[in-house]
Fold Glutamate--tRNA ligase.
Amino acid sequence: MLKEKGAKKIRTRIAPSPTGPMHAGTARSALFNFIFAKQHGGDFVLRIEDTDLERSDTIFEKDIRESLEWLGLDWDEFYRQSERADIYEKYLKNLLDAGLIFWCPHSEEDLAKERQEQMSRKEAMKHVCSHRNKTGAMDDKKGILRFKNNFSKEISFNDLVRGDISFDSGILGDFSIAKNLRTPLYNFAVVIDDREMAITHVIRGEDHISNTPKQILLQNALDFPRPLYAHLPLILGLDRSKLSKRHGAKSVLEYRKTGYLPEALLNFLILLGWHPAPDKDGREKEIFTKKEMLQEFSLNKVQKGGAVFTIDKLNWLNRTFIKNLNQADFSERLLPFTEDLAEKINENHDKWSKVLSLTKERLTTLDEIGDMAEIFYKDPFYPKELLFWKEGQSAENIVRHLRHIHAYLSGTNSWNKKDLEDGIAEYSKKEGRGETLWPFRVALSGKRHSAGPFEIAEILGKEESVKRIEKAIKMFE
RNA sequence: GGCCCUAUCGUCUAGUGGCCUAGGACGUGGCCUUCUCAAGGCCAAAACACGGGUUCGAUUCCCGUUGGGGCUACCA
C-alpha cells in the first residue's frame, strides 16, 4: 500500500497484561494490529502491561510470547512496563509541579462509601477530591495520585470504526492515575507509553472506549499528540457477554495443543468482525492466507456489533486448511501428535505416507490422528456385532463372505487397491456390496467409521490383512 | 444507578435509498455418490427487533422504544 509522502510511519501495539494465558480476544486484537501495521509498512509493538505486580506473572508473559510466535504475529519491538518506572516518575513529577495532578488521601473505604451514596442518589459515581487544589509537596507515603479534572467540558474523538464518540468529561471526576510516583495505573501508563513508543493507531477492544476520554484528558494535559483510535467489537460467548474463561474459552496455546492450525485460527479470528467486499463477480471469500489478509484488510470494513465465538466454523476452517496441506507439511505438523507412533513410523516411512493420504481429509483437528492411524499399527479390538452390516445380516453370510475374501486375498500376488477391488468386484456385486464389503472393512479396521477396505488392505499388506480376516472368522467359531 | 457502544437467517456476515423475490459462509435437513465415515455435487428451511418520521420510495437516513453489551477500582 502506498504511503503518503512525509507521513509518519504507522506503529501499532498489542498491550496485554500477563495475568492469564492469552485468549482469543487478545489474539484477534494482536492480529488486527499486526495486519494494519504491516499492510502500511509499519511496526507492530508488543508491550507487556505488568504494572500490577500482584496479578502479573512471568509465566503468562511467556504464554503470551509463545502464542504470538505460534500465530506468526512477530513483533518489531518489545517493552515491559515494570521496567519503565523512571519514565513514569519523570512525567508524574512534572505534572505535580504543574499542579495538574494531586495527592488524594482518601481511603478505599471512604471512596466505597461515597460511591454507595452516589449510586443511591442516582448520580454518576465519581470522586471529586477535596484535596484537588492542595498543590506542592505532600507526604507521598499516603494516598494516590489523581488527575485534576476541569469539568464541564465535552471531550470527543473520531473512532475509525465507529465515527464520532463524545463524553461529558465531568462525570469522570478526579480519576486515579498512579499509586505512587513509581507505580502508575493503567490509564496513565498507556498514555505515556503510547507517546514514548510513537504509537500512531490504537486498535483495541470496545471495552476500552470508556477509558479513551481519560487518556485524552491526560494527553491534553501533557501536550501529547493524540493517536488515532479504532475500537473493535468484542468477541462474545454463547450468552453474548464478553468471552471469558467462564464460557470455557480456550487459550491460544490450548488450540495449538488440540491440533488447530495457526492459519485456521487466524482466518477464523479475522472473520469475527471483519469481512471484505465481494469480488467483481460477487463471490465472497472465506479462506484467507496471511498475504491475502494483508492485501484486503481495512479498518472501515470492521463490524460494530459484537461477534459470538462458535467453534463450528473454526472446525470447518481447520479441516479445510488441513486438507490443503501438502504431504510433507502435514506430516511435520503431525509430529507433536504422533509421538506414540514415532518408532513405527520410522520403521516404514512409505507406509506412513500412505496412512497420511488416507487420513488427511478426515481430520478436523490434528489430535485425532492417533485414533485414526492406530488401525494400521495395532491389532484391532472390536465387538463381534460390529461385523454385521445391517440388523438382518446372518452370521453364516458374514463368514461365507469373509472366507471368500480370505481365499482371494491369500491367492493373489497383485497387491494394490485397484487390483484388489477388481478381484473382488464380481463377487461383491453378486452378493451385494454392503453385504460383503462392510464385514471386510470392519475386519480390517475394527471401526464403525474408517477409510475403505481396499485402501486399508493395500497399506496393511497381504500378511496382515489375511491375518485380520482370519481373526474375524474365528469370532464365529 | 450513571455514562458509552450496539442491533440483517441459529452463528459469522454482504448490503451505504430503488439492482432485495435481502446474497454468501458455517451449522441444520433432504437428495445424489456410497460398504461406513470424510470429502464432493445438488436442493431446502432460516433474518432486516418495534414504533414514529424524512422521501415518490426505506434493511439502508433521523428520532424514540425495546433488547444486547461494555465501563463505572489504589485491575488492565
Remarks:
- Chain A has a mean pLDDT of 93.
- The longest strand of chain A covers residues 43-48.
